[in-house]
Amino acid sequence: MHDQGLLNQAQMDLARYQTLVSQNSIARQQAEDQAFIVKQYEGSVQLDQAEIDQEKLNITYCHIVSPITGRVGLRLVDPGNYVQTTNTSGIAVLTQLQPMSVIFSLPEDDIPEVTAQTNAGATLTATVYDRANATELATGNITVLDNEIDTTTGMVRFRAQFPNTDNALFPNQFVNVRVLIRTLKGVVTAPTPAIQRGAPGTYVYIVNSNNTVSVRPVKLGPPDNGMVQVQSGLNPGDRVVTDGTDRLSDGARIIIPGAQSGKGGSSSAPKTHRHSHQQTPQ
Q1: What is the reported pTM?
Q2: Residue 241 near residue 254 (C-beta atoms within 8 A)
Q3: How many CA atoms does the CB half-sphere of 232 hold within 13 Å?
């Protein structure tokens, strides 16, 4: 305010001197000198304003605004601590919760079918389950496919995005991801425990009408919820052994549960199911 007052006084004197100069009452030099004094005070006022603006900027820097919407974690500094721009730990960690991304991997053998769907313009749906793979947490879409296969695991990484409006997903949470690639209808399936692997290749034990078993080679498709598609080797209604297969051989006689306990195991008939792949994120 001091410099502003001096400027106002100098401007009034200059106006008065200019009037006197027009009346030839004072020397023109005196009015010109007063004009320079006004400019000096104007510079002082501008310098004062610059200092005020600098302090306002410093106050703004003291108020930290998050660039994103999210949840702030536990503070990493306490009131009274001296914080510098060179501090590597920061003040707190802010995590974005909506939307939430999940990184997971699929075997490289699944990539041709995945890329065939994406190249056709299909949007692949991903469903997230909890650690126990029992409770569904969220449903979203695959947004990014990595550009290379991890040679140590033979897996390819994917990124799926979820709205997470209910905050069911939490940062760094371990989840299971199921990706729906396409739906197969009217296919033959068998319980996963019925599938055996050995000298005949992939096979199952078929339960005959006389309660004996036969080895039946099968060609498998994708698994889903404890069932696996059987592309060839089984017909709808065939009964297969799902338990006690380590004690069986071709032609062995079994006792169906519910009659007596014996060498065999329980049986199950194939049914139709949806085709999906399940992977645990890495």
Answers
A1: 0.56
A2: yes
A3: 2
